[in-house]
Task: structure prediction
Amino acid sequence: MYQVLYRKWRPGVFRDTVGQPHIVKTLLAQLQSGRLAHAYLFTGSRGTGKTTVAKILARAVNCERPVGGEPCNECPACAGILDGSIPDVAEIDAASHSGVDNIRALREETVYPPVSAKYRVYIIDEAHMLSAGAFNALLKTLEEPPPHVLFILATTETHKIPVTIASRCQRFAFRRISVPEISVLLAKICSQEQTKADQAALDLLAHMADGSLRDALSLLEQCVSAGSVVTESSVRETLGLNSLEDIAQWLMGLEDLSFSLNHLQTLYSSGLELSSILGQLASVLRDLLMGQLKGDLLVTRLPLEIASALSEKWPRDRIVPAISQIQESIGQLSRVADKHLEAELCLIRLASFSPAQHNGSPAPAPQPIQRAEPAKRVPENAKPPEPAKHKDSSSPSKPARLGAHADAKQDGRWAPFLASLGPFEKPAVMASKAEVDGDTLILRTDDPYFQGILQSAEFQSAVKAFFPGGLTGDSDPSPAPAGRSLDDFLREQNDLIVSE
Ligand SMILES: [Zn+2]
Result:
């Protein structure tokens, strides 16, 4: 019968477990000295070995020929527990047996001595799922435990275990298993399974497993069955991951909304989930942040040249809000009707976290576009936008100066300027109130996302091709004319892309 890797490679003795030496050492010492607790609480995220260690412990306490605390796995007790023929060791899934009746039945049983083993061992998985009544019933047993009973509670959510229960257990915190530890184990399993896999592929799988051995082995299994040799690119293909370089490239050009939104569409069309696509962006940014904090960009697993360029474009104070934004959008994806729109909004927001002020680029910083409520948003030390060189600029009266602005749509440069714009810049311009002051173009919009587009470096240079004085906002707080909403705009863009 085919056995999944995780079951096949489940360690039978403590010394073969991975990543929890502190726990194994303590348990072995207790087994050797005979000073066992009557209840243990194993906490930690999934796939870290809680149930595996619990099962080994159940055999170790009952083994007739233990060696240094380890179970022999061959004596009648060990064999009986392994094949389930000894009823004294029970594994209870609290998720499906959460009620008070289940625990009461268990309590009634505990008063009798074990049938054929030394200890009755109850392994309660997902213990946090027990009902309040069940916990109360369990507490009564834990307060006066029969000497032949051993409880092992395992949980991923420690905070849901009542203090009264936790305080009567000896607690062991299982840590996430590190990427190198998982990687080494995967290499060992591959060699014994006679599967060819390159190191980069195993490192990637270890990375994706997020500290869970079980996940790592499931992922490996998925990739092994997909092809003969496991390579990094085959792993990426099987798991629907983009190459890191692709994602880095995407992050480099994120402010170019036309490129960025089209790239999203391409990935989506290829069958990837939106949450997975956004998650991969966040993952690369997180690795980049770690690289910056450690002063070692190699942790990004990107070629150093690309990592350095990316790091320059994405300094720490840009990454942190970006990751928060991505996390928030991923959370929203399950709640909104239009998931695609949510993902696009996420990208537009990311693009509007202006990189120009961070990256020390020699290019002139774009002039700020005035926001609708400037009082709250503009930092105190920020200067109001310079009134462009103009014959009336000496006038102290704002209305007079404003009156001198010409409607941009009457200007001869307007039509060719509009024609030169990309599919995402044009709606932003059309939705803004546009005026011309000599050689300077003035655009006002109170939509922060359109503002983001107008502030992009690409757009600023597009303006200068027609209006050498560049782009400015205006200190006039009067609202921009009602244009299409951002949602309308994005829906149109979306339709446009889909129909391509
Ligand atoms: Zn044994």
Notes: DSSP finds 24 helices and eleven strands in the chain. The chain has four domains: 5-173, 179-238, 244-352, 374-487.
